[in-house]
Amino acid sequence: MPTDTTTVRLRVNSGETYQGEIPVHDVVHLALDRLLPHAVLNGHRLSVYKGQELIYPDMFLYEILAHYGDADFDVRAEQLDLETAAPFTNYGFDHLALAFEDRAAAKRFFQEGLGLKVVRDDEHLTVVTSGNTALFLFDFNPDAPLAPPAPSRIHHLGFVVDNLEAAAAHLHRSFPAFLGDFTLLERAERWSLYGHVQIGSIRFMLQLSQIRENFQGLKTEVAVAAAEELYDYASQDYGVRLG
Length: 243
Known about the structure:
Elements: E1 5-12, E2 17-23, H1 28-35, H2 38-41, E3 44-50, E4 53-54, H3 61-68, E5 71-79, E6 90-100, H4 103-113, E7 117-121, E8 126-129, E9 134-139, E10 154-161, H5 164-174, E11 184-186, E12 190-199, E13 202-211, H6 221-229
Parallel strand pairs: 1-5, 3-11, 6-9, 10-13
Antiparallel strand pairs: 1-2, 3-4, 3-5, 6-10, 7-8, 8-9, 11-12, 12-13
């Protein structure tokens, strides 16, 4: 695994450039987190480009270097409308992220023990899925950005909504601390917004996503069959009812 660093340059809206030395085994998302000021990260949609090509924020910098030859990016930052009162619907869990001291053992259990499909497995992340939900498995590292304070705790919960900007505006009004420091990133298949919630002594991160039109819908065999096999918790009150 590469261990050296590279100079990352982030030119925001064709104007000011932010740069710094970032380990090449870090992903683009971490470079944004380390180099961009709060005023850019907060309250904006962020899209990362090389020329006209949209860059996936979870790509490694060494992948970028090998393909493009440098780590110079154009960042498009679009101001969010946090005053909108448009409605939105929360469709439930898209993924659950966990941090492990032994990620390889976790992967083996979920893949070999529970029969989930591995769709990503590298030094940054392991993703296992049934098709309609996914588990994101991370190495526990308390020094990493957005990391939980201890292993075996929730890294983050991922929900899907139908109107991400409306959800952000609602949170801005109702739970402003959640949006105190967040990033809204564009991926090929979704827009994702991140924030933190503090409930008593428990603090964790939430990721809200709006799936882009061409990627919406459950299409794989297992995911389609899930609609007939899963229990609909919203169909009735849960538990034993007498009389």
